[in-house]
Amino acid sequence: MQDLVALESLSTQDIESLLDLSQNMAEILDRPIKKVPTLRGKAVVNLFFEPSTRTRNSFELAAKYLSADVINVQQSGSSVEKGETLWDTARNLSEMAVDGVIVRHQVSGVPQQLADILDIPVINAGDGSHEHPTQGLLDALTISQAKGSLAGLKVAIVGDVLHSRVARSDIHVLLALGAHVVLVGPPTVLPESYEELGVEVTTDLRRALSDADAIQVLRLQKERQNSGEIPSLWEYRLRWGITSQTVSWAKPDAVILHPGPQNRGVEIDSDILESSRSWVLRQVRNGVAVRMAVLFRLLGGGRGDE
Amino acid sequence: MKQVALLMDEDAIRRALMRIAHEIVERNQGVANLSLVGIRRRGVPLSERIAANLMVIENEAPVVGSLDIGLYRDDLANRPFSPVKQTSLGSRMVDRRIVVLVDDVLFTGRTVRAALDALSDFGRPTAIQLAVLIDRGHRELPIRADYVGKNVPTSRLERIRVEVKEIDGIDRVYVEKTEEVEATE
Amino acid sequence: MSREQTGWVIRNVRVIDPFRDVDSIEDIYVKGEEIGEPSLSTDYSVVDGRDLWLVPRLTDMHVHFREPGFENKEDLLSGSRAAAAGGFTAVCTMPNTFPTIDIPSLVQWQRDQAKNIGLVRIFPIGAISKGQEGRELADLYQMACAGAVGFSDDGHPLRDARIMRAALGYSTTLGRPIIQHAEDPALSEGGVMHEGSVSQQLGLPGIPEEAESVMVWRDVELAGLTGGLLHVAHVSAQGSLEALDYAKRRGLRVTAEVSPHHLFLTDAMIREWNFKPVTKVNPPLRPDGTRQLLIQAVRRGLIPVIASDHAPHHQDEKDRPYNEAPFGISGLETFIGTILGVFIVDGLLDPLSLFRLVTVEPHKVLGLEYPGLTVGAPADFTLIDPQAKWVVDGKKFYSRGKNTPLEGTWLQGRPVATMVGGQWTMRDQEVLR
C-alpha cells in the first residue's frame, strides 16, 4: 500500500488490518501523554482545496499524536484561476522534502492524479463526489464497535447518495466486511446503478430502515434545492428525515451515524442526535484513530521489501 | 543449511519462570505494588505465567498488562511496515508502581529501550525492572536484566527462537546457526 | 541531379475507389496535378504498391484547427501536417475560432492560408449564427459563395428552436447542410462524462445520452417542417439513432456522422485512465451497449459518415483536474488505425464500404464533387498499409494536441503516403513540409 486514494481499490485484508490498527491507535487517545514518537522527523502537508475544518483538524491531530510535523495549505479556487497548476503546487511541496500529502479537493480524481505523479504517499481526505476513505473506515470502525462485527448487519445510508463521497467509501468498506447495504433517498439523487454491486436501492425510507442495525444519515447540501433536485428542505425532512417517528422503524438497538456537520431539523432531528443511539461523537474520536492508523501504515515503515 | 540446537524444553522453561517469580517476590518483598508488563508478542504469555506463579507463591495476583513497542522503534525507516498490536496498560498500572517488564530474549537492548520510552508515556513508575527468559549478550545500549531464565553466550550469526504454547503450540527454546545473515532481535 | 520526371506510377496497388465503386489491383499514374493515362514511358517514378491500399480523397469533415485565436492548441499549419500524417487529403474546419468564422472574408482567409500551406484541401465550415451566439443567422449565402461547405455552431449547440428552424429553412436554398452539435445544455450542464454506472461509481458529474437525443429529435422534426439539410455531428446516443431512423423512414434530408473514438472506446476508459483527462471528450465516451449500436448503425448505413472531431488542446490545459480540463482529443493521426480496427480487423465491413464513409458520403453531405480516380481528376489519394502494427505515441503527433486516450494502444493499419494535387504531402510517416 503506497497511497490511500479509494477504499474501492483496497482488499478486504487491507481494510481489516487498517481497522485493527485503528482500534489499537484509539488506545493512545486514552493515555495521559497522547504522543508517540513514531513519525518523529516526518513532515506531512494538509493540502486542502476545499474548506473543511473538521477533517483537517482530525488529520492534523492524528499526525501530531504520532509526532509528525504538519503544515496546512488551504487554497481555494481552481488551478485555472490561480495560474499555477495543482501539480506544480504538489511537486513544489514534494521537493521541500515532505513525506506525505493529505489532499482534499472539490473535483473527483484529484488525489489519484496526484498519486500518479508524486513518489510520496498521497492520502485522500475527500475528493468531489468520489471517495472519502478515512470517513468510510471510521464509520466501519464505529459500527463494529457498537455491534461487534459488520457481517450480516443491515446498514441504511440515507440521503443524497449521488453526490456523497462518504456514501461511496461507506459502500465499499461495508460490502467488503459483509454488511447488507441499503441506499435510500430522493430518486433524483439516488445512483440506481449501485444495484450492480449488490446494494439495495430504494426511495422508500420505511423499507430501508426496517430491521436496520445502523443508519448512516448523510448531510443534505442546501444547493440541492437550488439545482431542483429536491423541492424544499421541509419536504425533504417529511419524506427522508430521521426523526423519532422514522427511527422507530429500525431495530430498537440500531445505531445512528452522521459524518457531520449536521443540519439539525433537516436530515436529522436534534433529539435523535442526542439520544443514546447516536454514535456521532464516537465517530469523531474514531476519526483521529483511523487517520493515525493510515499515517502510520503509509509513513511508518521503510519502503523496502522484506 | 541451518543448524539447530535445543536450549530449553518445557520443563526447563517452567523451572526458570518459577525461579524468576521467586526472585521477584524476594527482591520486592511481595507483589502488593507490582505490575507485570509483557512486551508483545512473546513477553505477554511469559508475564502471565510469572503472574500465575506469583499467585501460587504469595496467594495474591499482581497487576498484568501488555505493551506493543511498534510505535517506539528506532529503526522504523529501515524495516518494512509491521502492524501494531494491542497495548493494555493504564496509568494506574504504571504511576508510582514497580513495573516488571517481561520479554523473551534480551539481545541489543533496543526493544527494552523502546519499552522504557513507552512506559514513561503512561506515568512515572517507582522503579522499572526487567525479566527475560534468555539473555544472549551483544548489548548495544547500557541495559541489563534483573531476572534471567538462562544466560546463553551466542555469536551474532546465531538466532534464538523462543516458542510458547499460547502462540506456537509448544514450549521450547532453540538456537539456529545461520551463516549468511546477521541475526536481528 | 535527376532528370525532369513526368510523374509517378503506383504499381500493383489495391485501389479502393468508392467514387467509382471499384476495388481492384491497378496501376495508378499521376501526371502533373492529375491522374494520368496509363503509359509505357519510363519517365515515371515507380512506387511499389504491393500489399498497399490506395484510397482517393480521404475526407475528414469535422476538425478543429483553432486558427485564428487559439494557436497554442493548433494552427492551420500544424493541423494540416496532422491531417497529412493521418492520411487525409481534405478536411472541413469548424468555425469556433476567435474570431468566429462567421463572415465571408474569414472563410476566404482560411482557404487562402490553406492554399499557401498546400498540405491538405481545407473546406471551411462557417458559423450558423453570428458569433456562434445562437441569436441571429450569420450571412450564410455569402459565406457559401466564399467557399463554406456547411454551417455549424459546433462547440455549442444551437439551442433556440426558432433560429434552428430558420437555419434549416435557409439551407434549402444553399445546398449546404446545417451541422448541429446536438446537446441540450440544461441536461448536460456541469457534466464531464457519460452519465451511467461508471460516472456514478467514480462520483463524476454525468451527461445523459438524452442530452443529445432530445435535441436530435427536435432537429429532425424541424428538418421535417422545413425540408432543410440537417447533418448531426458526432452521434453518440441510442435515442439519436431512433430519431435518425425516423428521419430516414420519412425520407428527410438528414445525415449524421460518428467519431472513431465513440466506435472504439467506452466510458470504462475513464476508470482505466485513473481520471486523467485524456478521456474527456464531448459528447462523452459511452458504454459498450451504445458503442455496439453505433457500430451497427454504421454497418446498416444509418450513419453515413465517420469524422474525427479532432479537437486538440495544449498539454497544460489537459494537465488539470478532470472537471477543469477542456473537452477534446487529438484524432487525425489515429483515425485510420482506429476505423480499420473496428471494422476491417473484425470483418464487420469490407474496405470499399468502409471507405465510402470518409470519401463519397461526406462529399454528398457537403455537396462536393470528386469524380474518383479517373483521368484528369485531381491526384488526391492515400496509400495505406493495412497490416502495419504500431503503438500510438502522442509525443510523435504532428498535431499540437498530444492528448489521446489511445496512448500506448496497438493499432493495425496506418497511412504510409499521402498525395494532394500530385504532390506528396507525407511519405513513411514523414510530413513533407
From TrEMBL, chain A:
One of its GO terms (biological process) is 'de novo' UMP biosynthetic process. Pathway: Pyrimidine metabolism; UMP biosynthesis via de novo pathway; (S)-dihydroorotate from bicarbonate: step 2/3. Residues 152-296 form the Aspartate/ornithine carbamoyltransferase Asp/Orn-binding domain. Pfam families: OTCace (PF00185), OTCace_N (PF02729). Carbamoyl phosphate binds at R54, T55, R104, H132, Q135, G260, P261. Residues 3-144 form the Aspartate/ornithine carbamoyltransferase carbamoyl-P binding domain. It catalyses: carbamoyl phosphate + L-aspartate = N-carbamoyl-L-aspartate + phosphate + H(+). GO terms for cellular component: cytosol. Keywords: Pyrimidine biosynthesis, Transferase. L-aspartate binds at K82, R165, R219. Coiled coil: none annotated. InterPro entries: Asp/Orn_carbamoyltranf_P-bd, Asp/Orn_carbamoylTrfase, Asp/Orn_carbamoylTrfase_sf, Asp_carbamoyltransf, Asp_carbamoyltransf_Asp/Orn-bd. One of its GO terms (molecular function) is amino acid binding. Catalyzes the condensation of carbamoyl phosphate and aspartate to form carbamoyl aspartate and inorganic phosphate, the committed step in the de novo pyrimidine nucleotide biosynthesis pathway. Belongs to the aspartate/ornithine carbamoyltransferase superfamily. ATCase family. PANTHER family: ASPARTATE CARBAMOYLTRANSFERASE, ORNITHINE CARBAMOYLTRANSFERASE, MITOCHONDRIAL. NCBIfam families: asp_carb_tr, PRK00856.1. Heterododecamer (2C3:3R2) of six catalytic PyrB chains organized as two trimers (C3), and six regulatory PyrI chains organized as three dimers (R2). This is Aspartate carbamoyltransferase. It comes from Sulfobacillus benefaciens. The gene is pyrB.
Automatic annotation (TrEMBL), chain B:
GO terms for molecular function: RNA binding; uracil phosphoribosyltransferase activity. Residues 11-150 form the Phosphoribosyltransferase domain. Keywords: Glycosyltransferase, RNA-binding, Transcription, Transcription regulation, Transcription termination, Transferase. Gene3D superfamilies: 3.40.50.2020. GO terms for biological process: DNA-templated transcription termination. It catalyses: UMP + diphosphate = 5-phospho-alpha-D-ribose 1-diphosphate + uracil. Pfam families: Pribosyltran. It comes from the Bacteria. SUPFAM superfamilies: PRTase-like (SSF53271). Its EC number is 2.4.2.9. A motif (PRPP-binding) lies at residues 99-111. PANTHER family: BIFUNCTIONAL PROTEIN PYRR. Homodimer and homohexamer; in equilibrium. Belongs to the purine/pyrimidine phosphoribosyltransferase family. PyrR subfamily. Regulates transcriptional attenuation of the pyrimidine nucleotide (pyr) operon by binding in a uridine-dependent manner to specific sites on pyr mRNA. This disrupts an antiterminator hairpin in the RNA and favors formation of a downstream transcription terminator, leading to a reduced expression of downstream genes. Also displays a weak uracil phosphoribosyltransferase activity which is not physiologically significant. This is Bifunctional protein PyrR.
UniProtKB/TrEMBL annotation, chain C:
Its cofactor is Zn(2+). Coiled coil: none annotated. Its EC number is 3.5.2.3. One of its GO terms (cellular component) is cytoplasm. The keyword Cytoplasm does not apply. It catalyses: (S)-dihydroorotate + H2O = N-carbamoyl-L-aspartate + H(+). Zn(2+) 1 binds at H62, H64, D154, D309. Keywords: Hydrolase, Metal-binding, Pyrimidine biosynthesis, Zinc. GO terms for molecular function: allantoinase activity; dihydroorotase activity; zinc ion binding. Binds 2 Zn(2+) ions per subunit. Pathway: Pyrimidine metabolism; UMP biosynthesis via de novo pathway; (S)-dihydroorotate from bicarbonate: step 3/3. Residues 54-238 form the Dihydroorotase catalytic domain. Substrate binds at H64, F65, R66, N96, N282, H313, F327, G328. Zn(2+) 2 binds at D154, H181, H234. Pfam families: DHOase. The active site is at D309. It is an enzyme of class 3 (hydrolase). GO terms for biological process: 'de novo' UMP biosynthetic process; purine nucleobase catabolic process. It comes from the Bacteria. Gene3D superfamilies: Metal-dependent hydrolases (3.20.20.140), Urease, subunit C, domain 1 (2.30.40.10). Signal peptide: none annotated. PANTHER family: ALLANTOINASE (PTHR43668:SF2). Catalyzes the reversible cyclization of carbamoyl aspartate to dihydroorotate. Belongs to the metallo-dependent hydrolases superfamily. DHOase family. Class I DHOase subfamily. This is Dihydroorotase. It comes from Sulfobacillus benefaciens.
